[in-house]
Amino acid sequence: MRKRCSTIMAFLGTLLLSISIPTFVAGEEAVQASLHQERQTNIELMDILQNVKRFTYDSGFHFEYPDAVRGIYVTGNSVGSSNFENLVELVDTTDLNAMVIDIKEDHGHLTFKPEEGSPYEDIATNYISDPEGLMELLEEKQIYPIARVVVFKDSLLAEKRPDLSFTQNGEVWVNNKGEAFVSPFEKEVWEYNVEIAKMAAEMGFREIQFDYVRFPEGFETKDEELEYTLGDYKDMDLNNIKKRVEAVSDFVAYAREELSNYDVDVSVDIFGYAATIEETPGIGQNFSKISENVDVISSMIYPSHWTSYFGIENPDEEPYKLVSEYAKVENAVLGELETPPVSRPWLQDFEAPWLYSGPTKQYGKAEIEAQIKALYENGIDEFLLWNSGNVYTENVDYMIGK
Fold first, then answer.
1. Which residues, including other chains, have CB under 8 Å from residue 80's CB and lie 6 or more apart?
2. Contact at 8 Å (CB) between 204 and 139?
3. What is the pTM assigned to this prediction?
4. 265-271 and 207-211 as β-strands: parallel, antiparallel, unpaired?
5. pLDDT digits over 161-208, tens only?
6. CB contact at 8 A, 149 and 208
7. Which of 311, 307, 330, 315 lies closest to 371 in space, CA to CA?
8. How far apart are CA 96 and CA 90, in angstroms?
9. Which of 182, 253, 262, 267 is the most buried (most CB within 10 A)?
10. How far is Cα 220 from Cα 285, in angstroms, rounded to an integer?
11. How many CB atoms lie within 10 A of CB 6?
């Protein structure tokens, strides 16, 4: 792994230059001068040491931020397979320019092997067998690299540390998909995930995208049944909904502060409906509070994932209208913030057969372009495409209407 920290070297140089060795010369004036010089040096050293933490890490890889990020989701498994060549070619030969790559995936595994002795060795896979080679390729192609880190959905950590999770009758609670979560109230979980994010920054990723920054879905119906600790939030004079919002929002602020020395942007994936209400009752997402502490906000606005919001009876069948109506709401919410983040929604490049008893609405060129066009018409220039199998629609005009 290529690691360079030019500002640390600069600091060392400054430190050496600032050190003056006092010369002991006969005579009272010479001694006084030496003491004065040494005292001044100590002050300078103290000032420098106080600023050490403010260095900026330089991975040695350099990527220019695109005119606007237009990206695709890529699993660690895809990076390690022959499909990766196809994905690189797709981005390299179209108006796409970015990849969101799993670094910590949905079950809690790392997708690469960390350095020997790392506390994360036991959760690591070897999907990305050559991280440095990956970054060199992305740098050569100038494909903007974004690291996806799944935070609070983490079956591995929950099984290893039930005390950091939610339990029921002495067992780690899992949802109807068999997935376990760890608690946003636990600051040890915050640190665990942010240290992984730092590793991604050191690898050369230019942005850390946190996903599953929330409690389990429907938690408002389970919070009285499950056993878990509230940590520092126990004695807060807030109801359970507000406590969940505080914990999730505080994690985002903590992550951004901890990553401030790494010259990376911080983004968060968030449910689209969170922008339409003051705060979600169960999962703890407050769109405005999270947006205030990120560089990029990525709402998941897949038409298939909405009910009859915005007066659209079957949103999956009307991708243009759904995205357009959502964009108007989000623009209004972000417009109220003093320093709004970049909006970069997740768009749908997959089918939703679970919605249909008959033929499923197919998502092809027209449906992808409809979503993109709706964003552009509402002044949102960035987007990401989601397909869990990493098979993306061909011949799409990603600049349609521009």
1. 126, 127, 128, 129
2. yes
3. 0.87
4. parallel
5. 999 999 999 999 999 999 999 999 999 999 999 999 999 999 999 999
6. yes
7. 315
8. 8
9. 182
10. 13
11. 12
